[in-house]
Amino acid sequence: MTYALELKDLRKSFGKTDIIRGVNLAVNAGERIAVIGPNGAGKSTLFNLISGRLQPSSGEVLLNGQRIDGKTPFEINRLGLARSFQITNVFPKLSVFENLRCGLLWHTGARYSFLRFLSNLDEANARTEELVRQIGLERKRDVQAVNLTYAEQRALEIGVTIAGGANVILLDEPTAGMSKTETSHFIALIKHVTVGKTLLTVEHDMGVVFGLADKIAVVVYGEVIAFDTPAAVRANAKVQEAYLGSSVADAQGAGH
Ligand SMILES: Nc1ncnc2c1ncn2[C@@H]1O[C@H](COP(=O)(O)OP(=O)(O)OP(=O)(O)O)[C@@H](O)[C@H]1O
Q1: What is the atom index within ligand 1 of the atom nearest the CA of 37?
Q2: Among 31, 34, 36, CA closest to 167
């Protein structure tokens, strides 16, 4: 069976310090995964290893069954994995529509051939209009990105991330900095635009985690100590002790 994303005994050391210590993870196509864990557990490092920003010390990363460890972020993106805030760019002076069309055309390789660019344009425009609708920014279609609200900018970033048609999407804390209302609206939006795609998020907000994820991967001290449904993870004694316990302790500490 081919997984959308598979990590095999993945390891990463910085100098003599082992940060990722033998991670195995197999994600089915179409699953939404939240990666959680205490500060410094290695979540961002894991995302950096998957997206090619960092090279593993050992182990394998497979995207749709194909080895991608050792490849550049650009090559990995071309193979169908998109990460927000890394590969994608929102250009402040371009409108919502123009930003989305750039993301789309960039991925279709239009920049290599002007003739191909022209022949693809009608189709690209239609697809871009659809993206504008998908991210709920129809009324802001022609507004420059710089003039959008914060939540709208984040929605646009998600739109640009999915514009290239990647089937595996990595999002770093997609709702960070949003109000409660914006957050619940945004969870619905993420669910909507990632239907049929495989999604991995790094997330600290437990409301988002339990609202969004089919499965949760709990990373503690460079290892995945649990990978299961939200209900099973919530009930997992090891997780309660290692992670949820510590966040209760943090919350209590913050109250003093
Ligand atoms: N380039 C690097 N060189 C050395 N150490 C690093 C490097 N990048 C990360 N680390 C260390 O690796 C550990 C894991 O960091 P990482 O950012 O992956 O954790 P995290 O789980 O994403 O934390 P947070 O939730 O705080 O973002 C930390 O101790 C960090 O200091």
Answers
A1: 21
A2: 31
